[in-house]
């Protein structure tokens, strides 16, 4: 035990198990595994987020789609490129600004969203299963505040 105490002292009492990031990462890993197991159409979480936002708005600039889904420019470009190859979205220059690319959901993309809604709802329920209803609401609210 002397070795462990010396190491703890060298770390200034810092313990990984006391850090919020450690638990956020573990919770994120758990959610990602649940998502991969249940989501339809072999969609990733980022692809799903983009499709759902496009289903909501029908068409957005690629930049705004990235902001709406909390993805940086490089990430959203890759997501859009993969969805485009699958025929789930279409792109076109923005009629108001040719420098901007607009992304629209296709009928196949709408169908994928429709197929995935019950899976997405089940994914959230499974992720939050260890918590009671009040804890679920509290967790989501707290994460919203720090996100």
Can you describe this structure?
By secondary structure, the chain is α+β, with helices and mostly antiparallel strands. The chain has helices at 2-10, 20-38, 45-57, 62-68, 73-85, 107-128, 133-146, and strands at 59-61, 89-94, 97-105. It has a domain at 43-116: Winged helix-like DNA-binding domain superfamily/Winged helix DNA-binding domain (Arc Repressor Mutant, subunit A, Orthogonal Bundle). Strands 1-3-2 form a 3-stranded antiparallel beta sheet. The two termini are 39 Å apart. The mean pLDDT is 94.
Topology:
Elements: H1 2-10, H2 20-38, H3 45-57, E1 59-61, H4 62-68, H5 73-85, E2 89-94, E3 97-105, H6 107-128, H7 133-146
Antiparallel strand pairs: 1-3, 2-3
Helix pairs in contact: 2-6, 3-6, 4-5
Mean pLDDT: 94
CATH superfamily of the domain at 43-116: Winged helix-like DNA-binding domain superfamily/Winged helix DNA-binding domain
Low-confidence stretches: none
Q: What is the CA–CA distance across the termini?
A: 39 Å
How many DSSP-defined strands?
Answer: 3
The structural class is alpha+beta
Proportion of residues in helical segments: 55-70%
Strand content: 5-15%
Order of helices and strands: HHHEHHEEHH
Which word captures the global form?
elongated
Provide the spatial order of strands within the biggest beta sheet.
Answer: 1-3-2
Main beta-sheet strand count, sense and barrel state:
3 strands, antiparallel
Radius of gyration: 20 Å
Under the CATH scheme, the architecture of the domain at 43-116 is Orthogonal Bundle
What is the CATH topology classification name of the domain at 43-116?
Arc Repressor Mutant, subunit A
If helices are DSSP runs of H or I spanning 4 or more residues, what is the number of helices? Answer: 7
User: Briefly, what CATH class of the domain at 43-116?
Assistant: Mainly Alpha
């Amino acid at each position: 035990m002397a070795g462990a105490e010396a190491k703890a002292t060298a770390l200034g009492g810092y313990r990984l198990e006391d850090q919020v990031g450690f638990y956020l990462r573990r919770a994120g890993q758990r959610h990602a595994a649940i998502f991969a197991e249940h989501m339809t159409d072999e969609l990733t979480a980022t692809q799903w987020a983009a499709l759902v936002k496009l289903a909501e708005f029908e068409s957005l600039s690629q930049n705004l789609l990235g902001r709406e889904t909390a993805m940086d420019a490089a990430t959203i470009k890759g997501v859009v490129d993969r969805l485009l190859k699958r025929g789930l979205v279409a792109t076109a220059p923005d009629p108001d600004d040719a420098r901007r690319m607009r992304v629209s959901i296709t009928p196949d993309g709408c169908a994928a969203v429709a197929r995935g809604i019950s899976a997405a709802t089940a994914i959230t329920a499974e992720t939050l299963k260890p918590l009671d209803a009040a804890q679920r609401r509290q967790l989501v609210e707290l994460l919203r505040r720090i996100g």
